[in-house]
Predict the 3D structure of the following.
Amino acid sequence: MDMNEIKEIFFQECEEQLAELESGLLKMNDGDRDPETVNAVFRAVHSIKGGAGAFGLDDLVAFAHVFETTLDCVRSNKLEPTQDVLKVMLKSADVLADLTNAARDGGSVDESRSRGLVKELEALANGELPSPSAAAEAPAPKPAPKAAPAPVAAAPAPKPTDESGFQPIPFSFDGFDGEEMPIDLPAFEITFKPRFELYSKGNDATLLLRDLSRLGEMSIYCNADALPGLDELDPEGAYFFWNVTLKTDKGEDAIRTVFEFAEWDCDLTVRPAEDSKPGDTNDELPMIPVPFDLSILDDGGADEAPAAETKASDAAAAVAAAETATNVAQMAAAAARVEKKESAAAAAAAANAAAQNNAAAGAGQTIRVDLDRVDRLINLVGELVINQAMLSQSVIENDTTGTSSINMGLEELQQLTREIQDSVMAIRAQPVKPVFQRMSRIVREIADMTGKSIRLITEGENTEVDKTVIDKLAEPLTHMIRNAVDHGIETPEKRSAAGKNTEGTVRLTAKHRSGRILIELADDGAGINREKVRQKAIQNDLIPADANLSDEEIDNLIFLPGFSTADKISDISGRGVGMDVVKRSIQALGGRINITSKPGHGSVFTMSLPLTLAVLDGMVVTVAGQTLVVPLTAIVETLQPEAAAIHSFGASHRLISIRNSFCPLVDVGRILNFRATQANPVEGVALLVESEGGGQRALMVDAIQGQRQVVIKSLEANYTHVPGIAAATILGDGRVALILDVDAVVGASRGQSLKAEMSLAAVG
């Protein structure tokens, strides 16, 4: 892969890390104090910082460094993650996401906001707790002296033996130019013993020692006496540790800073050389200042080195290879080859090959696939379904026995086709969690702008739905969240006066029901002020002054284009475009949205959406000579009406008696203008359907052809919009059948106009 491909993978992983970061912070905000949650949050920021450093994304690295420093204080119990602290961290997570997006897309970030949060994070790291009214632009407090963590005693390093094969490995990287250091520089004795957690979190002992060498002149001894035999090796163990002598004028704090993000995953002691006790200093170890250069892992020049230098290089290569290899068995083999005085290049190659093999073995868990390829696969499977239906239709028309081997083969083909289709659709199915997590930021930002205290509660985040639906959910949900926070939730003062908790609640829920996904957005605010809504609609000439509207109809006025109850236009609302966009977006997805509101207690917006925009199970029916498909998820049962069960209501309405209750009877052919007069119900079939917001209705059709799975084709994209029709499909005999928009037909039966906005828009 070229660098651009690697960078793209990095940004994809950043999205996952950012999601993990926000999820963990929200858990902590809800009172979760599990150390693993805190560690997961820290690792997310640390991983983003590490990857950003590799690509030279300095702004991202700088902010992430300050962020993870503060998170480290939480990990080490130096900082209590209170609500005010987590509020700063959640804002910091937002800025980290902005910096990541800017690095990927070339945009810009509000520097004043990021600088303000840097100051707040630094203040938290230095023990200064925020006040609820503290501004982000407040001057940075003076940092308090950083307390060095208590040293952890390490086991005394045993003297090396001739049989060990390991020689002292002095380090010197870019920061060491090879010149003699003044002899009067302070010297420090350092023992660095990694635990297995250090490697499992992606840290590298070699890089830590490299950074340490940049502080001054360093001599180092790698102790491998704890390395067991091959049959006793723990694949996740850590067997090497290092004794270091460092001459530097940077001080002990600078040394500990090198290990500040790894010291909880290792045993580390740092002490001035003069404090060392007789018998436990590194002076007893045969360490010489020979530079350790990573180029020793290359192939060239190994044969030309002097014997002593080659031996040290071989040992260094074995250590470096062992630290990077993930297959411990091959790691030990690499070290054994050095003992036999094989070349360092061969040892490194063996260890690196082991790492590659091990990585390849674990790479089968997940793969990243271009979405266009998945879409093409789904389209091909859809065509396969159509062709299978055509083949079945042809066989049925030409073979009346029903027992031939061809029929049996077709039944197996139909079953396999269905399984293939279900499997392919499952590839596109994704949880709604990423969209829900984005709403947390919207709530925080709007709450800050309006001076309100609001908590977002999400449920059913793992509910899966087609990716096409997920991609188009973000915009309507954003408008609805803004509306709930700005218009629905009251200010803390008003909530307190009403006897409510000053902190408002917005609840976002997803769940499956009858082959569809229901998404509910509920708030515990003041509810819809219907009188104000009515008056605003009259002022804007949206309804006549003498209009007699029900509560439900008044609530739905907020979806009209240009409608807003805001007294003045602001950055949040007032232009009357938000909820109109919500309705059109939901309808474009083949869904419906309903409102229930109780003054003083809040409102609930319910969206009903299809699980997929590719296929559906439907009932194929005939209406006035036309073939229609009614979505099976809307059908409760089918009925054969009897004359005694039909009752007239008014001049043109009819009811059907079903188990001692009455249900309106809707002539689909008349509603769609397929015929001019109403058909005789006794001569047809009634489909009892459940619509969103319209209750039950009995749809009258002429006949039922059968139940089939059909592939959805967009009618708007291939022809034009037809009121009352959601989409189209191709039947087994090659004919085009229209897919009925049940909700639009039911709405028309209740007196609503069958216009474009009352029907499903383009599908897919």
